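#struct-help
A.M.: can someone run this one for me? Single chain, 79 residues.
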Amino acid sequence: MDIIKNDENIGTNIRRIRKEKGIGQTELIQKIDLEEWDFEVNLTREALVKIERGIQHIKVSQLKAIKVILETTYDELLK
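D.P.: on it. Structure tokens below:
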């Protein structure tokens, strides 16, 4: 399982992009859960809260799923 060290920027960027698109945390998690993935995502709302606050690292699979659902790029998420 690959993990990306969360330096607050990733979480801040996820929160900003999510809010710009008018998607709540619960809605984001629901959209991820409803999607058919060819990999395991395993993301709870509690984990998303911690990722957005910069206190939990994010898995590559979680970042990929968030990128797809938010229709954004890795550059936007990681800058």
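A.M.: thanks! The helical segments are 9-20, 25-34, 45-53, 60-69, 74-78.
D.P.: also worth noting: The radius of gyration is 11 Å.
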